Amino acid sequence: MSTMHEVDYEILGDDLQFVKIELDPGEAVVAEAGAMMYVEDGIQLDTIFGDGSQQQKGFMGALMSAGKRLLTGESLFMTVFHNEGTGKKKVAFAAPYPGKIQPLHLAELGGELICQKDSFLCAAKGVSIGIAFSKRFGVGLFGGEGFIMQRLTGDGWTFVHAGGTLEERTLAPGETLRVDTGCLVALQPSVTYDIQLVGSVKTALFGGEGLFFATLRGPGRVWLQSLPFSRLASRIYAAAPQTGGRRREEGSILGGLGNLLDGDG
Questions:
Q1: What's the average model confidence in pLDDT over 183-209?
Q2: Which one in 36, 46, 67, 215 has a CA-CA gap of 20 to 30 Å to 28?
Q3: Domain with 117 in it
Protein backbone atom coordinates (compact mmCIF):
# COMPACT_ATOMS: atom_id res chain seq x y z
CA MET A 1 0.00 0.00 0.00
CA SER A 2 1.36 3.43 -0.93
CA THR A 3 2.35 5.73 1.94
CA MET A 4 3.01 8.68 -0.37
CA HIS A 5 0.72 11.54 -1.30
CA GLU A 6 -0.24 11.20 -4.98
CA VAL A 7 0.22 14.73 -6.31
CA ASP A 8 -0.52 16.21 -9.75
CA TYR A 9 2.09 18.48 -11.31
CA GLU A 10 2.99 20.66 -14.29
CA ILE A 11 6.49 21.81 -15.30
CA LEU A 12 6.63 25.24 -16.96
CA GLY A 13 9.38 27.23 -18.65
CA ASP A 14 12.29 26.34 -20.88
CA ASP A 15 15.72 26.95 -19.35
CA LEU A 16 14.52 28.60 -16.14
CA GLN A 17 11.83 26.16 -15.09
CA PHE A 18 9.48 25.79 -12.18
CA VAL A 19 7.17 22.97 -11.15
CA LYS A 20 3.57 23.70 -10.19
CA ILE A 21 2.03 21.05 -7.95
CA GLU A 22 -1.70 20.70 -7.39
CA LEU A 23 -2.67 19.36 -3.97
CA ASP A 24 -6.01 17.84 -3.06
CA PRO A 25 -7.31 18.60 0.45
CA GLY A 26 -5.03 16.85 2.96
CA GLU A 27 -2.18 16.29 0.47
CA ALA A 28 1.29 17.72 1.02
CA VAL A 29 4.74 18.08 -0.50
CA VAL A 30 8.12 18.47 1.17
CA ALA A 31 10.92 20.73 -0.10
CA GLU A 32 14.28 22.20 0.79
CA ALA A 33 14.22 25.63 2.40
CA GLY A 34 14.27 28.42 -0.19
CA ALA A 35 12.80 26.40 -3.09
CA MET A 36 9.27 27.84 -2.89
CA MET A 37 8.07 30.19 -5.63
CA TYR A 38 4.48 30.79 -4.48
CA VAL A 39 1.58 29.16 -2.64
CA GLU A 40 -2.15 29.69 -3.02
CA ASP A 41 -4.43 30.60 -0.14
CA GLY A 42 -5.19 27.52 1.92
CA ILE A 43 -1.66 26.07 1.81
CA GLN A 44 -0.17 25.74 5.30
CA LEU A 45 3.63 25.79 5.73
CA ASP A 46 5.25 23.72 8.49
CA THR A 47 8.92 23.32 9.32
CA ILE A 48 9.95 19.80 10.25
CA PHE A 49 13.09 18.44 11.86
CA GLY A 50 14.59 15.61 9.83
CA ASP A 51 14.27 14.05 6.41
CA GLY A 52 10.60 14.56 5.55
CA SER A 53 9.49 10.96 5.93
CA GLN A 54 6.55 9.79 7.99
CA GLN A 55 8.38 6.76 9.30
CA GLN A 56 10.47 8.50 11.97
CA LYS A 57 10.12 6.90 15.41
CA GLY A 58 10.19 9.51 18.12
CA PHE A 59 12.75 12.20 18.82
CA MET A 60 15.82 9.99 18.30
CA GLY A 61 14.63 8.95 14.85
CA ALA A 62 14.15 12.58 13.86
CA LEU A 63 17.53 13.49 15.35
CA MET A 64 19.33 10.78 13.38
CA SER A 65 17.68 11.78 10.09
CA ALA A 66 18.53 15.45 10.75
CA GLY A 67 22.14 14.51 11.46
CA LYS A 68 22.36 12.68 8.14
CA ARG A 69 21.08 15.78 6.35
CA LEU A 70 23.71 17.89 8.11
CA LEU A 71 26.43 15.63 6.71
CA THR A 72 25.22 16.36 3.17
CA GLY A 73 25.58 20.09 3.77
CA GLU A 74 21.82 20.68 3.86
CA SER A 75 19.69 22.38 6.51
CA LEU A 76 18.56 20.39 9.54
CA PHE A 77 15.01 21.41 8.69
CA MET A 78 12.69 20.93 5.73
CA THR A 79 9.42 22.63 4.83
CA VAL A 80 6.13 20.80 4.35
CA PHE A 81 3.33 22.41 2.35
CA HIS A 82 -0.13 21.09 3.37
CA ASN A 83 -3.41 21.80 1.64
CA GLU A 84 -5.66 22.68 4.56
CA GLY A 85 -8.38 24.14 2.32
CA THR A 86 -11.57 22.62 0.96
CA GLY A 87 -10.58 22.50 -2.73
CA LYS A 88 -7.55 21.91 -4.91
CA LYS A 89 -4.67 24.31 -4.24
CA LYS A 90 -1.36 24.91 -6.00
CA VAL A 91 2.19 25.43 -4.80
CA ALA A 92 5.17 26.15 -7.07
CA PHE A 93 8.89 25.48 -6.67
CA ALA A 94 11.53 27.18 -8.84
CA ALA A 95 14.83 25.83 -10.15
CA PRO A 96 17.82 27.53 -8.48
CA TYR A 97 19.70 28.18 -11.76
CA PRO A 98 19.25 27.50 -15.51
CA GLY A 99 18.51 23.88 -16.30
CA LYS A 100 15.75 21.28 -16.35
CA ILE A 101 13.44 19.86 -13.70
CA GLN A 102 13.02 16.09 -14.00
CA PRO A 103 10.01 14.33 -12.42
CA LEU A 104 10.80 10.80 -11.25
CA HIS A 105 8.33 8.31 -9.80
CA LEU A 106 10.14 6.22 -7.21
CA ALA A 107 7.71 3.31 -7.52
CA GLU A 108 8.84 2.91 -11.15
CA LEU A 109 12.50 3.00 -10.10
CA GLY A 110 12.35 0.27 -7.48
CA GLY A 111 11.55 2.60 -4.60
CA GLU A 112 14.98 4.20 -4.31
CA LEU A 113 17.13 6.79 -6.07
CA ILE A 114 20.62 8.16 -5.37
CA CYS A 115 21.07 11.81 -6.33
CA GLN A 116 23.59 14.62 -6.13
CA LYS A 117 23.06 16.52 -2.87
CA ASP A 118 22.19 19.81 -4.62
CA SER A 119 19.81 18.35 -7.21
CA PHE A 120 16.79 17.51 -4.99
CA LEU A 121 14.02 20.12 -5.33
CA CYS A 122 10.84 18.69 -3.79
CA ALA A 123 8.85 15.48 -3.35
CA ALA A 124 5.48 14.10 -2.32
CA LYS A 125 5.06 13.96 1.46
CA GLY A 126 6.33 10.62 2.72
CA VAL A 127 9.43 10.40 0.53
CA SER A 128 12.46 10.05 2.80
CA ILE A 129 15.53 12.18 1.97
CA GLY A 130 18.52 10.50 3.58
CA ILE A 131 22.23 10.04 2.94
CA ALA A 132 24.07 7.54 0.75
CA PHE A 133 27.72 6.70 1.37
CA SER A 134 29.63 4.70 -1.21
CA LYS A 135 31.44 1.67 0.17
CA ARG A 136 34.30 2.17 -2.25
CA PHE A 137 37.42 3.79 -0.83
CA GLY A 138 38.10 5.85 -3.95
CA VAL A 139 34.75 7.60 -3.74
CA GLY A 140 35.22 8.47 -0.09
CA LEU A 141 38.72 9.85 -0.53
CA PHE A 142 38.47 11.65 -3.86
CA GLY A 143 34.79 12.03 -4.68
CA GLY A 144 34.53 15.78 -4.16
CA GLU A 145 31.06 16.87 -5.28
CA GLY A 146 29.96 13.28 -5.78
CA PHE A 147 31.15 11.79 -2.48
CA ILE A 148 28.17 12.36 -0.21
CA MET A 149 24.98 11.69 -2.13
CA GLN A 150 21.33 11.85 -1.10
CA ARG A 151 19.17 8.72 -0.93
CA LEU A 152 15.49 9.19 -1.83
CA THR A 153 13.25 6.32 -0.77
CA GLY A 154 9.50 5.79 -1.10
CA ASP A 155 6.98 5.18 -3.88
CA GLY A 156 5.82 8.68 -4.85
CA TRP A 157 6.88 11.56 -7.09
CA THR A 158 10.16 13.36 -6.54
CA PHE A 159 11.57 16.27 -8.55
CA VAL A 160 15.27 16.81 -9.20
CA HIS A 161 16.98 19.70 -10.95
CA ALA A 162 19.77 19.38 -13.53
CA GLY A 163 21.92 22.31 -14.63
CA GLY A 164 22.03 23.06 -18.35
CA THR A 165 20.72 20.16 -20.44
CA LEU A 166 19.66 16.83 -18.94
CA GLU A 167 20.51 13.47 -20.49
CA GLU A 168 19.16 10.13 -19.30
CA ARG A 169 21.26 7.03 -20.04
CA THR A 170 20.40 3.39 -19.51
CA LEU A 171 23.49 1.27 -18.88
CA ALA A 172 23.48 -2.40 -19.78
CA PRO A 173 24.93 -4.95 -17.32
CA GLY A 174 28.69 -4.37 -17.20
CA GLU A 175 28.55 -1.24 -19.38
CA THR A 176 30.68 1.60 -18.02
CA LEU A 177 30.55 5.35 -18.41
CA ARG A 178 33.08 7.89 -17.12
CA VAL A 179 31.70 11.33 -16.21
CA ASP A 180 32.82 14.44 -14.41
CA THR A 181 31.73 14.07 -10.78
CA GLY A 182 29.75 17.33 -10.94
CA CYS A 183 27.82 16.20 -14.03
CA LEU A 184 26.18 13.29 -12.23
CA VAL A 185 22.60 14.15 -11.19
CA ALA A 186 21.11 10.82 -10.14
CA LEU A 187 21.41 7.07 -10.55
CA GLN A 188 19.62 3.91 -9.59
CA PRO A 189 21.20 1.93 -6.72
CA SER A 190 21.91 -0.94 -9.13
CA VAL A 191 24.54 1.26 -10.82
CA THR A 192 27.92 0.99 -9.07
CA TYR A 193 29.80 4.24 -8.60
CA ASP A 194 33.53 4.75 -8.07
CA ILE A 195 36.15 7.46 -8.54
CA GLN A 196 39.20 6.80 -10.71
CA LEU A 197 42.31 8.83 -11.47
CA VAL A 198 42.61 10.35 -14.95
CA GLY A 199 44.87 8.16 -17.15
CA SER A 200 48.24 9.89 -16.79
CA VAL A 201 49.89 12.48 -14.59
CA LYS A 202 50.27 14.81 -17.57
CA THR A 203 46.57 14.55 -18.41
CA ALA A 204 45.61 15.01 -14.77
CA LEU A 205 47.72 18.13 -14.30
CA PHE A 206 47.25 19.86 -17.65
CA GLY A 207 44.15 18.32 -19.25
CA GLY A 208 41.76 20.81 -17.68
CA GLU A 209 39.27 18.11 -16.66
CA GLY A 210 40.33 17.65 -13.03
CA LEU A 211 42.19 14.77 -11.46
CA PHE A 212 39.34 12.27 -11.12
CA PHE A 213 36.36 10.88 -13.01
CA ALA A 214 33.27 9.13 -11.70
CA THR A 215 33.08 5.67 -13.24
CA LEU A 216 29.55 4.27 -13.49
CA ARG A 217 28.87 0.61 -14.20
CA GLY A 218 25.49 -0.80 -15.16
CA PRO A 219 22.89 -2.11 -15.08
CA GLY A 220 20.57 0.80 -14.43
CA ARG A 221 19.55 4.32 -15.37
CA VAL A 222 21.62 7.44 -14.78
CA TRP A 223 20.81 11.13 -15.25
CA LEU A 224 23.53 13.60 -16.26
CA GLN A 225 23.71 17.40 -16.42
CA SER A 226 25.75 19.52 -18.82
CA LEU A 227 26.22 22.48 -16.45
CA PRO A 228 27.05 21.70 -12.80
CA PHE A 229 26.55 24.70 -10.54
CA SER A 230 30.20 24.55 -9.45
CA ARG A 231 31.29 25.00 -13.08
CA LEU A 232 28.86 27.88 -13.59
CA ALA A 233 30.02 29.56 -10.38
CA SER A 234 33.71 29.25 -11.30
CA ARG A 235 33.10 30.90 -14.69
CA ILE A 236 31.17 33.75 -13.06
CA TYR A 237 33.94 34.23 -10.52
CA ALA A 238 36.60 34.24 -13.25
CA ALA A 239 34.74 36.97 -15.16
CA ALA A 240 33.85 39.08 -12.10
CA PRO A 241 35.75 42.29 -11.23
CA GLN A 242 38.65 41.60 -8.92
CA THR A 243 39.78 43.40 -5.77
CA GLY A 244 40.62 47.04 -6.38
CA GLY A 245 38.12 47.40 -9.22
CA ARG A 246 40.25 45.52 -11.75
CA ARG A 247 38.53 43.12 -14.10
CA ARG A 248 39.43 39.91 -15.86
CA GLU A 249 39.22 40.07 -19.64
CA GLU A 250 38.31 36.52 -20.60
CA GLY A 251 39.57 35.83 -24.09
CA SER A 252 40.75 39.42 -24.56
CA ILE A 253 43.99 40.15 -26.40
CA LEU A 254 44.40 43.45 -24.54
CA GLY A 255 44.07 41.90 -21.08
CA GLY A 256 45.58 44.23 -18.50
CA LEU A 257 46.15 46.88 -21.19
CA GLY A 258 42.37 47.12 -21.51
CA ASN A 259 42.15 48.22 -17.90
CA LEU A 260 44.66 51.00 -18.56
CA LEU A 261 42.71 52.21 -21.60
CA ASP A 262 39.52 52.26 -19.51
CA GLY A 263 41.22 54.25 -16.79
CA ASP A 264 41.16 51.30 -14.34
CA GLY A 265 44.93 51.03 -14.16
A1: 73
A2: 67
A3: 8-247
